[in-house]
Amino acid sequence: MNLIPQALTPSLYDEDLSESEQQEILHLQQEILAAVAQNLDHLAVIRQVCLLEEQLLPDAVASVMLLDEQKLLQLYVAPSIPAEGAARLSNLRPGPHAGSCGNAVYRGEAVFVSNTRSDPRWQELRPLALDFGLMACWSMPIRGAGQQILGTFALSSFVGREPNAFHRKILEIGASIIGIVLERQRQEQTLSLLGKVFESSNQAIMLTDSQAGILEVNRAFSDMTGYSAAEVKGQRPSLLSSGRHDRAFYQNMWRSLQERGYWQGEVWNRRKNGEVYPEWLSITAIREAGQITNYVSFFFDISEQKATQARLEFLTCHDPLTELPNRLIVQEQLSQAMVSSARRQLQAALLYLDLDEFRTINASLGQAVGDQLLRAVADRLRQLLGEQYPLGRLDSDEFAIVLAGVEELDQPAELAEQIIQAFLKPFVIAGHELICTLSIGIALYPEDGEDGDSLLKKADSAMSHAKQDGRNTFRFYSESMNRDAAAHLQLRTGLRRALAQGELFLEYQPQVELVSGRVIGAEALVRWQHPQLGRIAPADFIGVAEQSGLIVPLGEWVLQQACAQAAAWQRAGQPLVVAVNLSGVQFKRGDLVDSVAAALLEHELDPALLELELTETILIEGTEHVLDNLQRLKALGVQLSIDDFGTGYSSLAYLSRLPVDKLKIDQSFVRSLRQVPANATIVRMVVQMARSLGIRSIAEGVEDAQARDFLLANQCDEGQGYWFSRPLAAPALSALLQAGAGHLPPSV
Ligand code: C2E
Ligand code: CA
Ligand code: CA
């Protein structure tokens, strides 16, 4: 701040002033500057000015009045005016008759009254003049930095006098120096006020220099970051980085500050204790003469807002009672499931669940119990489904489950069945034991609908059918699916029982060496004697067994039976290679090699008398696991054959890599040898190829002598079919062999 007001300097050498007067003015200035330099407080400086002025003008008192907020003049400093006089110098409203000071403010210029008793400008203050013997009064406006009038500086004389140049000068000096002191005091006040604002702001504030070195931080900064002001001063703001933002993020921030002088956004920072938190940060560049001198940053912690926001978002997509995704999300999951299933050319399913007696429970036990039950239902479902299937709540007591990538239609039915079973267990709510069953409707994509809405509608209507059919059950939307599902379910449960209660048995179909007509082997074929349905063909239950995984225990049982029988024939001196069919599922799920080894050992069977029939699909899937299993089986000494050869993708490439002993030419070619000439060619080619690879060949479905003759002529090794024998119970086969001395047909 320029402490030497212009009023002081130019007229120092005023021609109207005598040399001694000029000396005195110089002296006055030095005294005042000394007071200011001593940093006396502003009141003391103003008092000092008044006293110095009084020294220069005998028989006079100096006074300073300031305008208040109501624009009334109030006495501020007047060291020589007695208290009674001072008391009367208040609430003076500026005006044309309001004395010298009132006029100085009113006119905005210096006012010199030489005779207060007669001057009209003193009309309103005449009694004051009389009471205190004031004769002359000179007053000058005190102006602030913006030239606005702050008040007046006056010299009042007890003698009538006209001001000379010197008097005007000292009045002017007094007013301007007091203006400066007052202005400075205001600025200090503002600064300290700003300091208080800075310190008490609950936004963290950080001030840096142009090189981003930290100059000041406030208390909120320390509270938020855990760093005290002393710890961060001189450091750079990167002290707070969380490492969550990349270089580009900060480059972008700096560019914006350089170009626009401003940046704001969300930043993840790290507190002193290591905790990472989100804050809202705004940085402003402060420029002076076009150059950035400082940056000031304001920031506040938004972790709570973020948590609230996340909660709000959660609430818009979730049902607050059960915390399950709501209908909106279910629809979203459904469309995602449809897209992903379509891409894999699979189906998707929607299960629509509705509690059976919820309304009654709600009405009789009250809504609070109803709510608790819904929560318990949601928990039970969540537990059952785990992470695998998304679950949502559609409406009061309606839930939905979305299944994507459905391979087997048994999958949704089985899940529905599992849920229904799980709900037979009672819920215990507020001391009540409640059984709450549910009805489930199932709709399939794309069969029943190609969009979410129609699937929801169809699943809903299927659910209504489940209710109509007595509740506590599930229904598909499509009737044919319902029939299949019912039949499958019956088979599945029946099969479990069949295994446990010995309703399964094996038949053996002979395999004949074509050249000699000798029976050298037999294929073990499983049969099911159902107590109500009678005999069920394997074609009708093997698929169900595979889908439900029951094929693993079933296959194990067949293996055991077949080995036992083969061992019996071995002991009876009538050794036959017994062929056992294997399912791909056994390869994937069972510990096949171990159970084969165990069966051989247990029945003391020569491994060469056991043959395993594999399907081409097992081989084509040809994973390392399969290959490894085949090698290990081969190492046990058993024979491996490929069943139904020619019906699969018949990639011949795998044959040379696999330890296979025999190809079984599919019966569809053999049975139609004469009708379809192409099939004869296929059979011939398969036989030749097998020979060239050193693999034996067997033709299935030999139903007449012509087929046998054709095969013999084309060097096929073995035959199997009704012309030789139908599959027979073991004792019947033994008898047949004995009768024909091990040859089929016996006549040969
Ligand atoms: P497959 O392995 O191809 O078995 C041959 C099927 O052809 C048997 O039917 C057999 O009775 C029938 N067959 C035999 N010779 C002739 C003939 O000259 N003409 C006609 N038209 N058919 C003949 P089956 O016993 O009904 O078995 C059907 C399928 O069930 C089997 O086909 C096999 O894939 C499966 N299977 C049977 N037993 C088992 C088993 O224990 N485990 C596994 N995984 N699958 C089995
Ligand atoms: Ca077979
Ligand atoms: Ca076959």
UniProtKB/TrEMBL annotation:
Residues 190-235 form the PAS domain. It comes from the Bacteria. It is an enzyme of class 3 (hydrolase). One of its GO terms (molecular function) is cyclic-guanylate-specific phosphodiesterase activity. Keywords: c-di-GMP. Residues 346-479 form the GGDEF domain. SUPFAM superfamilies: EAL domain-like, GAF domain-like, Nucleotide cyclase, PYP-like sensor domain (PAS domain). Residues 488-741 form the EAL domain. InterPro entries: Biofilm_reg_signaling, Diguanyl_cyclase/Pdiesterase, EAL_dom, EAL_sf, GAF, GAF-like_dom_sf, GGDEF_dom, Nucleotide_cyclase. PROSITE patterns: EAL, GGDEF, PAS. Its EC number is 3.1.4.52. PANTHER family: BIOFILM ARCHITECTURE MAINTENANCE PROTEIN MBAA (PTHR44757:SF2), DIGUANYLATE CYCLASE DGCP (PTHR44757). This is cyclic-guanylate-specific phosphodiesterase. It comes from Pseudomonas fluvialis.
